Amino acid sequence: MNDFLRFFSNIPIELLGAIITLFGGVAANIFADAVLPRLRKRFVLEAKKTPKSYKEQMTELTQNLVKASEEVDRILQEMAEASQQREVAVSRLEQQLGNLSEREKELQKKIDTLEKVPLPAVEYFVHIVEKGEKRSAWRDYSLFGLGVVVSTVIAIVLRLLGI
Question: Is the pLDDT of residue 98 over 60?
């Protein structure tokens, strides 16, 4: 017995696992070839032994037809809702398109009017706008500086009051 154990202790565990797996696979194959066909045959015969009556078949088919009809009605309802949503979306797009075409006409009129303005008038207008932009920049800087001064004074006063 010790020789038998000593023999198996020298075999690597991977090889031993492979041998056991091989024998297990062979045993499962023999079982499947011998037992499963008998089990299939038995269950198929039992299923064939109890045929349904005409009434049972018609009842089952009617129930299946009712279920299918309900499913078709549900799908048709979903399709109707989807088509209504699409119709609303299309009408919105048409409205937006109409608004955009009106806007385009207005802008085209403005462009036509601006194209008729003589070049010296445009240059004068640009000159006036540039002056206004320079003045507004100086105004912005001065207001920012005054804001910094006022906020600093308020902070000092609040600190002196202990708040």
Answer: yes
